[in-house]
Amino acid sequence: MSDTILAEDHGTWVEITLNRPDRLNSFNDEMHLALRRQIEAARDSGARAILLTGAGRGFCAGQDLGDRDPAKMETPPDLSETIRTFYAPLVTLLRSLEMPVVCAVNGVAAGAGANIALACDIVLAAESAKFIQSFANVGLVPDAGGTWSLTHLLGEARAKGLALTGEPLPATRAADWGLIWRALPDAELMDEARKLTARFAEGPTVGLGLTKQAIQAAGTNSFAEQLELEAQSQKICGESPDYAEGVSAFLNKRKPGFSGRRRS
């Protein structure tokens, strides 16, 4: 197992840490592959939630540009290959997981690092953290889903402003704008992130996963299509053990004990 990724198994949920703190957790090929393997392992193990964060003083500075330096290459790099091989599969995997993914942005999130965070379901950030679309500073286009996430979450004007200027967006303003869920005092970030992830891991995973998928589909579905998707999702939820448990707990005024399983 690569030491560029750390994983702590909490039974029903897994905490995954990007671990290249000397490089602000910027991605090289090894870390890309290790992160994807760890997420897939968490999914396949039956984990019901994932927490993603970074080691050291930053969350992730995006791509390690030392690995994509044209001055060290005989021909210009094909950055489309980097996106198709590494970033696109990663953010697609995060959005496709049938469980909540919490991201705790503990410091700077720049370039693809910012957009990987935005591919998660719930983003908490330290008040000292900043989100930087740094691509413009090196003549690139926001990737890892950045042009999609920024536009859908903030609208065209703010998306263009952040992408074209590369200006840092403080975490508190990111929360005010609706880019992330919440900004927290630095000392409280990880405790709150772990509590929230543990809460999700004890919840009705089938319903939470289908809620995530339905909200992601709403941007392209018509109203009628979304109503039908809700009906199909509700059928699955209604047949799950968690719905029966939730109703029983509500009627008997007790805490539910959700299993997170679909109907067998």
Fold blueprint:
Layout: E1 5-9, E2 13-18, H1 29-44, E3 49-54, E4 58-60, H2 79-96, E5 101-105, E6 108-110, H3 112-118, E7 122-126, E8 130-132, H4 146-154, H5 156-165, E9 169-170, H6 171-177, E10 182-184, H7 189-201, H8 205-217, H9 223-238, H10 241-251
Parallel strand pairs: 2-3, 3-5, 4-6, 5-7, 6-8, 7-10
Antiparallel strand pairs: 1-2, 8-9
In summary, what is this structure?
It is built from ten helices and ten strands.
Description:
This protein has 264 residues and is of the alpha/beta class. The protein has 2 domains: 5-201, 2-enoyl-CoA Hydratase, Chain A, domain 1, CATH 3.90.226.10; 205-251. The protein has 10 helices and 10 strands. A hairpin with a 3-residue loop joins strand 1 (5-9) and strand 2 (13-18). Helix 4 (146-154) crosses helix 5 and helix 8 (205-217) runs antiparallel to helix 9 (223-238). The protein is globular. 41% of the residues are buried.
List keywords for this structure.
45% helix, 264 residues, 2 domains, 2-enoyl-CoA Hydratase, Chain A, domain 1, six-stranded mixed beta sheet, alpha/beta, globular, 10 helices, single chain, four-stranded mixed beta sheet
Number of domains: 2
Cα distance, first to last residue?
34 Å
Order of helices and strands: EEHEEHEEHEEHHEHEHHHH
CATH superfamily of the largest domain: 2-enoyl-CoA Hydratase, Chain A, domain 1
For the record, what CATH class of the largest domain applies?
Answer: Alpha Beta
Low-confidence stretches: none
Report strand order across the widest sheet: 1-2-3-5-7-10
Total beta-strand segments:
10
Kindly report the CATH topology of the largest domain: 2-enoyl-CoA Hydratase, Chain A, domain 1
Structural class: alpha/beta
The portion of residues assigned to helices is 40-55%
Strand content: 15-25%
Write down the Rg: 19 Å
The number of helical runs is 10
* Sheet of most strands: 6 strands, mixed
CATH architecture level-2 label of the largest domain: Alpha-Beta Complex
